[in-house]
Amino acid sequence: MDLDAWVGRSIDDICGNGFHDPAANHCAHFVCHVLGLSFPFNCRQFVGGTAPAANVRVHEVFAECPKVGKWADADKDRMQLVFVVRKDVVNLATKTMQNIPQKHVGIYSGGKVYHYSNTNDRVVVQGVDEFLQRFQNLYAGDQGLFFGHVPGSSLQLSVDLTAASVPAGARAFQLRKDGARWWAKLAGAPGGAEFLAGVEVMQPAKGFYGLHFPASAYYGPVFDPAEHASAIDQWAYLLDVAAACESKGRMNLINTYDRARFTFGFYQLAAHTPRDNLILYFRAALADPDFRRLFPDLELRGGKVFRLAGDGSATDLEEEAYDPAKGEHQLRRFMAYLNPNRTTIDDQEVLQAARMVWWANENPAANRLQAQVASQILQKKVTQRYQPWYGLDGRLDTTCAIVADIHHQGRGGRAAVKAALSAGSEAEVERALLAIGAAKYPTRVATLKARLDGWRLAGKMGQKRYHAALNEFR
To answer: Which of 58, 320, 342, 435 is most buried by its number of CB atoms within 10 A?
Structure first.
């Protein structure tokens, strides 16, 4: 990173969103634009705009650093953040800094500190001692220097595409790109065959950047409800009709191109949702020693997934961050661990995809776990949401399956579903439910209907009814 190229530039040059107020403190604003740190609260949330966003608050940047400490204990060979603030307002144990006006941050690299001088309204560079003395003179009280590792740095992996260096006991993969296709092979496995890990898709107009499996490239194990019904009962068939629409039941399906950053499996478990979907799968999978060999840097602590970095820091991948632009909480760290950059395709993203695809291809236990986790998710939604919303007690399993699929895809709201459930006979109700979103998603609705009709003919659906008290079908 050429930090010298920033010296002398004003915030007007740096921020494309127009947050140029000369009366504001732009030290964190500058640092976050340089390092691409857009977590809330950022300049785009504050003033609007469409350019890349950057956080604007020093204490929020401090809290996001995976490792903090006194400057005397910093690794001076490492590029990192350096904070100057009154000593008594920092709690290193809780990684918090009080939000007082007199605080500052810069980027340390090669013995120098690059920071934004609000007095001069430009980026300046100083030695560490000069940097501290500057703020001892400006600020009230006894100032201290603290280091912080760059937010997100603890989630970055060093990926060797040849897998020449394999940690003891870990599974590593050789990765090879051929056109838009990425191929992977388990390292150290004589005779092991290459497998398709994903196909690149780049569609800026749709905001798609990442890997996926186009339908023409589908392969691998398929979800068979008959194999799982003994463990999860009738829920296997409700899952199957949704899976037919989502993934054609492919257990190894990955998608890293949309806002969820990483989606996996036949039920398309997404990485961005807290306490739901893919994080639940990782929690359960980490009980399997073979899965831990795929992800040797992950461990469960207090039931949550943590990433252990080489410097000894532990990052909680389940910490929730609120995204006001989308009005939802997200697992931003988990997303970044699986797919570090939303708009590029990098080696870490490919490696994580290869790990998950191989796991589904080679391990039947992995797919049993997929079915169990998906069933738990669906059961929870039915009992905690759909039953209170719609009074599904006594409804046919086929009706419940359509309701669940509407919400799983998001093609209709509660008012439309309520109206359809009042349409008359059971056949009329299902026709009304299938009409929801059919104009916009005709293929999905047609696939859903065909799957339901097939299971009716086979005698597997259309006979059992939902019993809300037991949350099961009889």
So the answer is: 58
Q: Count of domains in the chain?
A: 3
Q: Indicate if 144 and 181 belong to the same structural domain.
A: no
- End of a domain among 320, 350, 365? 365
- SS percent in the chain: helix, strand, coil, step 5: 40, 20, 40
Tokens of 166: 């394999």
- Domain residues for the domain of 200 are 173-365
Query: Is there a domain that residue 165 lies in?
Result: no
Question: Counting Cβ atoms within 10 Å, is residue 131 exposed (0-12), middle (13-18) or buried (19+)?
Answer: buried
Residue 374 lies in a domain: no
The Cα 110–Cα 301 span in angstroms is: 36
The total number of residues shown for the chain amounts to 474
Same domain, residue pair 202 and 350: yes
The answer to whether residues 308 and 204 belong to one domain is yes
**319 and 443 co-located in one domain:** no
Q: Which residues pair with residue 86 across a beta bridge?
A: 143
**339 and 299 inside one domain:** yes
- Asked if 264 and 328 sit in the same domain, the reply is yes
Q: Are residues 326 and 262 in the same domain?
A: yes
Q: Which tokens hold the place of 447?
A: 């696939």
Q: What is the pLDDT along the chain (474 residues), one digit of tens a residue?
A: 799 999 999 999 999 999 999 999 999 999 999 998 988 899 999 999 988 899 999 999 999 998 999 999 999 999 999 999 999 999 999 999 999 999 999 999 999 999 999 999 999 999 999 999 999 999 999 999 999 999 888 787 878 788 777 666 788 999 999 999 999 999 877 667 999 999 999 988 888 899 999 999 999 999 999 999 999 999 999 999 999 999 999 999 999 999 899 999 999 999 999 999 999 999 999 999 999 999 999 999 999 999 988 777 788 999 887 776 677 889 989 999 999 888 889 999 999 999 999 999 999 999 999 999 999 999 999 999 999 999 999 999 999 999 999 999 999 999 999 999 999 999 999 999 999 999 999 999 999 999 999 999 999 999 999 999 999 999
Asked, for residue 386, whether it belongs to a domain, the answer is: no
Q: Is 371 part of a structural domain of the chain?
A: no
Specify the residue for token string 């990052």: 315
In whole angstroms, what is the distance from residue 60 CA to residue 44 CA? 16
Q: Residue 462 has which token pair? A: 């259309």
In terms of domains, do 332 and 218 share one? yes
Q: Which helix (H) or strand (E) holds 321?
A: strand 321-323
Contact 127, 111 (CB under 8 A): yes
User: Cα(106)–Cα(25) distance, rounded to whole angstroms?
Assistant: 12
